[in-house]
Predict the 3D structure of the following.
Amino acid sequence: MTNVGSLATKPLFGLPLAELWFALLFFIFGMFLFLDGFDFGVGVLFATRTDDHEKEQLLAAVGPFWDGNEVWLVVFGGALFAAFPSVYANLFSRYYLLMFAILAALGLRGLAPEMYEEREDDRWRTLWGYSFVIGSTVTPFLLGLFVMNWLIGATGLITPVGVLGGLTVLVLTVVDGAAFLGLKTRGALRDDMRNRGVRAAVGYLGGVIITLGSIYVTEPALRSSFRSPLIVALVILTATLIGIYVVALRRNRYYAAFAATAALVFGLVALVATLLFPYVDRTAGLTIRDAIISTLPLNLMSIMTSVLLPIVLMYFVVLYSAFSGPIDTEETYR
Amino acid sequence: MVDPVLASRLQFALTTIVHIIFPVMSMGLAPFLIYFTWKEIRTKQPVYEQLRRFWTRIFAVSFVVGTVTGLVLEFEFGTNFAAFSTTAGELFGGPLALEGMMAFMLEATFLGIFVFGRDRVSDRLYFLSSIAVGLGTWLSAVWILIANSWMQTPRGFEIAVENGQRIVKLTDPLAAYLNPRFPYMFIHMQNAAVESVALFMAGVAAYYVFRHHVWGYPIEHIDFWEKSLKIALVVLLITAPLQVIQGDEYARHVSETQPQKFAAMEAVWETDSYVPEYIVAFPANVNDLLNPRTKELFGIGIPGGASWLASGGNPQATIRGLESFSTKSPPVAIVFWAFRIMVALGFWFILLAVWGGYRWWRGELFEDDLLHKALMASSLLGFVAVEVGWIVTEVGRQPWVIQGVMKTSASVSPNLTGAEATFTLLGFVTGYIMLLSLYTYVVGRIIRAGPPSKDELTQSDTVHVRESEVTSGD
């Protein structure tokens, strides 16, 4: 028996670890939604391209990044399992078919960039182009549906709020992808992406407002959460960021637009987290404190995570700096 | 309509059987890729760049399919085995989270650099990326096998009851995570991965060497294939004997810690001493041929062999029989045969390695067509051995999902309906058949196209599959 001492009885430095893990989960989800979000957005925008060379550029833009970005979803699943195992079990088994639909859509998206390059004939490329577009469109929609269902504690798979949330997240990925392509492409292609990004941004603002309104109308249980000044602040912040994004794109300031997108995504994630708090599984009536694991494993996970997450963020800095700047048009996917 | 418990178990079996192929490919290729990258940078010989680029393409495809199928496994603990996840989450969730944070992140980010970044980063960072990718794949195995070995030999916990549910509480993290089974499992698995990839590499290379040297078709990159064959043989000579020697110790550890599994491996029903080691065994009754739990056996055996193996040298040692356990036996025939196939393959691989090594030493490595054919025929057998090995491990521990703590039948999601489970099971059967066909087709194309030609090298990392080299429409 190793001596685990006070780790077994007292939370680390007396911190509110349950609340911190709740926040961390949404941070991880935000990282996934921001980073893989632009991959999805590029996949949606892929549908607007007819020129082979432009399609190649879009695939090359996400090529080195998408698999690393998707790992944030793996980490989200693992962290939810580690910190709130009963919630993980409840959510994933409650939305059983939805989870497998997400997996199938992610599979289509993941295979597509790799397979597209394997052969050069039109039939093959059309097939994997469809796979890329469908996977990239369906995944964010279903993720939005899943998160909204989780938030309102839905028992069914498809709810009006969930569908609105899904569409909102889908539009957000287009906002994200357009800003990313602004950094990665040049010329007429970039101009077209910029215009689509501006339109998507306006749509996203509408989506957030309509989704929040529908939650307020259909979910009396959540109405009290709307009184939180945080919610009002986050909505104002979102509107401001949309303004910044549109102005930045109009002035060809793509880094600013991309940064605004990141803030938009974390704003949305913070909205959901604020509305869900203090619950972590509304259907089962579990609050954060009910569902959190015991002190000893929680302390250990907290120590490990506080060491590992900064290192993980460094990997991404290395990766993104190695592939910074626009795509070399001579440089194909592999 | 399949019962949700059975459907979930079949689905998990199917998804793990398919998934394990890809991690084995990545974990086994990783050391080779690190070596090729290092030699390429140090010697500047084109053949090492060809080796690195050719095998990296196979690694990249395997990684993508492994990601797609691996995410499914992580989700399935929640979707299909919610009761298990709730009960064991405190212990089992941590390793999965750490696998994502510590291992998978490392592998996925640096693979981006390793696959696309040869022209964009310095040699030093490029070589570091190859190490990071390899380290990532192996660390993944550490955390996944910690989780699995804890289920086989659970330690460092106590059982509490919360809201009417039994919950596993972590009391001693070191005892739980460095449980007795973990080192055996980790060494056995990682060595198996390297051995399987060495066999695969040797088989593919033997095909080209055979065509060139025996049939006399000129092959453009024959030096590349000769080098591949030699490197694979060296690795096979090291890994094949190690696997059998370490496997023997592993089996003894199973007999000590999971006697019921060991009894199933040897099909021992009655506790006995001087138990024979059956080489083959069949039901004595023809009617029992399809009954995996049949008892009346007729076989050819080595007297005292099983006792000798279990005790490490005493043919008189007693082995507990399946009848002496209060729980229902696992399907004995499946475990018994899977174990025998694995062991037979293990010895066959040693024979192959020694045969190849002898021919090489005599300078006849490229002439012996029978050896080439044997290597070609064995190119996928490493993966077969991995599959039957995991079948021994996972079927052999039944009826337990956590040995002695929780039964598999109690681990399935309580609210799961037969319709849902059957629907996803059928979806996986069709989807995974397509996925495996696709993977086989793509890897086949990469192999047929061969490595990039020497005049293409070091200009850029673009590999074009030349249509002329590939017979189209297959």
Residues 452 and 463 of chain B are 6 Å apart (CA to CA). The mean pLDDT of chain B is 89. Residues 1-179+418-473 of chain B form one domain. The two ends of chain B are 37 Å apart (CA to CA).
